[in-house]
Amino acid sequence: MLSKSMESALNEQLVLEGYASFLYLSMASWCDQEGLEGCAKFMYRQSEEETQHMMRIFNYINEMDGHALAPAIAQPPHTFESVKVLFDKVYAHEQKVTAAINELVAQSYDEKDHATFNFLQWYVEEQREEEALMRTILDRIKLIGDGPQSLYYIDMELDKINKIEEKEAAASGE
C-alpha cells in the first residue's frame, strides 16, 4: 500500500512522463516537416517509450491500492530553431525527469517503502541510459555541425541509432 504522499508524488511523475511523450511527439512532427525522416522516427519511438513509462507507473499506483490519476498535459512547443536546439531541449527534459525519479527514490527510501524503491530502480537505469543516449546525439551534432548541409548526416546518424534500437528491441522480444 502506498502512502498518500507517495501516491501523490507518483501521480506527479505521470505528468512528467506524459509531457515527455507529447513533447517528443511534437518534435517528431517538426522533424517530419523539416524532412528529417531519421530524426522523426527516433522521436516517434521516444514518444511511445515515454507513454509506456507513464502507463507502467499508472498501473503500479493502482496495483498498490492507490488511485492513479490521468494527467492533464500542457501543450508542448511545436517549432524549434534547429535540430541542436531540439536535442538540447530533449536532454534538459531527460535531466528533469532523472531529478524527479531521484526524488521519488529518496522518498521511497525515507518512507521505508521497499516495493516502490524496488519498482523505481528500473527507472533509475532507464534514465541513465536516456541521458547517455542524448549526450551521444548532442556530441555527434557538435562534431557534424547543424548547418543545412549537415542535417543530412545528423539524420543518418539518428537512423543508425533507430536501427540499433530496433535490433535490441527485437532481440529482447519487445
Give a written overview of the molecule.
- This protein has 174 residues and is mostly helical.
- It contains 5 helices and no strands.
- The protein is 79% helix and 0% strand.
- It has a single domain, classed as Ferritin, core subunit, four-helix bundle (Ferritin, Up-down Bundle).
- Helix 1 packs antiparallel against helix 3.
- The model has no long low-confidence stretch (mean pLDDT 94).
- The longest helix has 31 residues.
Features:
174 residues; mainly alpha; Ferritin; 5 helices; 79% helix; elongated
The secondary-structure element order is HHHHH
User: What does the overall shape look like?
Assistant: elongated
Helix run count: 5
Main sheet summary: none
